[in-house]
Amino acid sequence: MKKAGITIKDLHLSFGPTEVLKGVNLDIKPGEFFAFLGPSGSGKSTLLRSIAGFGPRPKGSILIGGKDVVALDPWKRNVGMVFQSYALWPHMSVRDNVAFGLRERRIPAADIATKVQEGLELVGLAHLADRMPNQLSGGQQQRVALARTVVTEPEVLLLDEPLSNLDASLRVQMRRELLRLQRKLGLTTIFVTHDQEEANTTSDRMAVLDGGVIQQIGTPQELYDTPANLFVANFLGTANILEGKVETEGGQARFRTTTGDTLALPEGKTASGTNIVLRPQNITLQRDPGANALAGQVLHREFLGGQIRYLIKAGGAEIVVDQSHRAGRDWFEPGMAVHLLANTDSAVVL
Ligand SMILES: Nc1ncnc2c1ncn2[C@@H]1O[C@H](COP(=O)(O)OP(=O)(O)OP(=O)(O)O)[C@@H](O)[C@H]1O
């Protein structure tokens, strides 16, 4: 299957007076599984639909395989799109739904039959070819929608929240299937989701959007470990954010919180900033004070099975701390005075 890279340059799009995409720049490599992640209203779907050619024509350029498609109609772009709602034809069998796009392209009937069979085998549904859509489960309908799209051999596969209508366990199964299918076909794929776990577990790289602007692009690990700003830090996983400033004394950098507590920063970490981001798993609770430990008080405790999650008041903030649970070990009780030992090796100053 052909695979194309996508380059987007300075893309702007407005609905009436409201600018929804405010200068998007992006490079997606051929064969990459790329996610657009962001909260509701951040512009993910609008950006995806612009690539497909739906909606108002944006300003700027969208290159697919090096060719600017901004002025092209959707059906001239060689992209395939799968929607959250599946959009199957209710009056057509599975086989006819998958054949639909091929018939539109006036492909010979014998070739259509072969391609439909291959497409259905790819998604494991060859045995249900004669069923009608309303005789299928949600997951099966989504597979038909995928098969219908990939048989047309697009250069780019666009997925708009394709798993949102499925229940939680099926979503996990389907996201693995999606990734397996994408790897097998090597298709350049963009996956729109507001679910960080879905983006983390599938994508090679992702763009985090907020307010029509890309906040950061990188692998899931890069974005989690080195968020570029507080929005990304907060959006990917739980972030404890303490306010203060960095001080350097005798070559040693420290972060001094607004409450006067200090946290030594590791060598080489001298970044200036007024916030320090600590992940819940990078803090250890202890009864006694110590170097790099903040004094705090337990506000709340939740048993999550493998972990105990504490909410602690310390350093001028409410801090989430996850401690691994071991049977028989004492827990810290709400109301108790505790000390939070922060591992600043993995902390980020912003
Ligand atoms: N047809 C339209 N007319 C006017 N405004 C629109 C239209 N479509 C989207 N918008 C607005 O554009 C902004 C971005 O919408 P978009 O659907 O791209 O966000 P999203 O990040 O995909 O959100 P969601 O996850 O809720 O779908 C929103 O503020 C939305 O209200």
Record the SSE blueprint:
Blueprint: E1 6-15, E2 18-28, E3 33-37, H1 44-52, E4 59-64, E5 67-68, E6 79-82, H2 94-104, H3 109-122, H4 138-150, E7 156-160, H5 168-185, E8 188-193, H6 196-202, E9 205-210, E10 213-218, H7 220-225, H8 230-235, E11 240-249, E12 252-257, E13 262-264, E14 275-278, E15 283-286, E16 293-303, E17 307-314, E18 317-324, E19 337-342, E20 348-349
Parallel strand pairs: 3-8, 3-9, 6-7, 7-8
Antiparallel strand pairs: 1-2, 1-4, 4-5, 9-10, 11-12, 11-14, 12-13, 14-20, 15-19, 16-17, 16-19, 17-18
The structure holds adenosine-5'-triphosphate.
Adenosine-5'-triphosphate is lined by residues 15, 20, 38, 40-46, 194.
Family: Belongs to the ABC transporter superfamily.
Keywords: ATP-binding, Nucleotide-binding, Transport
GO molecular function: ABC-type transporter activity; ATP binding; ATP hydrolysis activity
Can you give a write-up of this model?
This protein is α+β, with helices and mostly antiparallel strands and 350 residues long. The protein has two domains: 6-234, Rossmann fold; 238-344, OB fold (Dihydrolipoamide Acetyltransferase, E2P) (Beta Barrel), CATH 2.40.50.140. It is 24% helix and 35% strand. It has helices at residues 44-52, 94-104, 109-122, 138-150, 168-185, 196-202, 220-225, 230-235, and strands at 6-15, 18-28, 33-37, 59-64, 67-68, 79-82, 156-160, 188-193, 205-210, 213-218, 240-249, 252-257, 262-264, 275-278, 283-286, 293-303, 307-314, 317-324, 337-342, 348-349. The strands form four sheets. The chain has a six-stranded mixed β-sheet with strand order 6-7-8-3-9-10, with helices on both faces. A hairpin with a 2-residue loop joins strand 9 and strand 10. Helix 2 (94-104) crosses helix 3, helix 2 packs parallel to helix 4 and helix 3 packs across helix 4 (138-150). It is elongated, with a radius of gyration of 25 Å. The mean pLDDT is 92. It binds adenosine-5'-triphosphate.
